[in-house]
Amino acid sequence: MNLRGIVAVSGRPGLFKLVGQNKGGYVLESLDAQKVKIVANITTTKLASLEDITIYGEDEDLKLVDVLANITAAKGAVPDAKADGPTLKKFFLEVAPAHDQEKVYASDMKKIVSWFHILKELPLFTEAAPEAIDQDGVKVEEKAEKKPKATPKPANVKATSKAPAKKASMTSKKGV
């Protein structure tokens, strides 16, 4: 599943695709049928990438990507986002059995189900997630497997450097 570039914007319903960035903010395109493009201010708008969102779990947090994958594999019908709380809680016990029932509210469940209904029409579920590559061009997984080489320290190097002190030269001329 590839959710890279899909974000939720605070204060706005729905999901957006991150198109670019300019000096005024992030350029976003809505994922609904209207395809509205907006510029979200960098300083005041909070963006949350869907691949970074987690759900409270009993032992450890659950990734939203895994929960959405479980929803696609669910045998029963996915309830509507406007369904009542008990229906959503019963559904969430099926798709995310390890979620913390005290911390995950029905409003959170409604939001996740509504996001699923937006995303199910897109080819995101069939795409593979792009592999993370660092600035050196090495896959992050390969880099984690390799042990870092110890860099030898040069011998007899002194770390003292004296910068010349600035002289305070404030002179004033009176009555010239």
Describe this structure in words.
InterPro entries: BVU_3817-like_C_sf (IPR049281), BVU_3817_N_sf (IPR049282), DUF5606 (IPR041218), DUF6852 (IPR049280). There is one protein chain. The protein is α+β, with helices and mostly antiparallel strands and 176 residues long. It has a domain at 6-125: Arc Repressor Mutant, subunit A (Orthogonal Bundle), CATH 1.10.10.1650. Helix content is 23%, strand content 16%. Helix 2 crosses helix 3. The relative contact order is 0.13.
Strand content: 15-25%
Roughly how many Å is the radius of gyration?
A: 26 Å
The termini sit apart by 80 Å
Share of helical residues: 10-25%
In the CATH hierarchy, what is the architecture of one domain at level 2?
Answer: Orthogonal Bundle
Order of helices and strands: EEEEEEEHHHH
Largest sheet: 5 strands, antiparallel
How many DSSP-defined strands? 7
Strands in their spatial order, largest beta sheet: 4-3-2-1-5
| Mean pLDDT level | 75
What coarse outline follows from CA principal-axis ratios?
globular
Structural class: alpha+beta
CATH class of one domain: Mainly Alpha
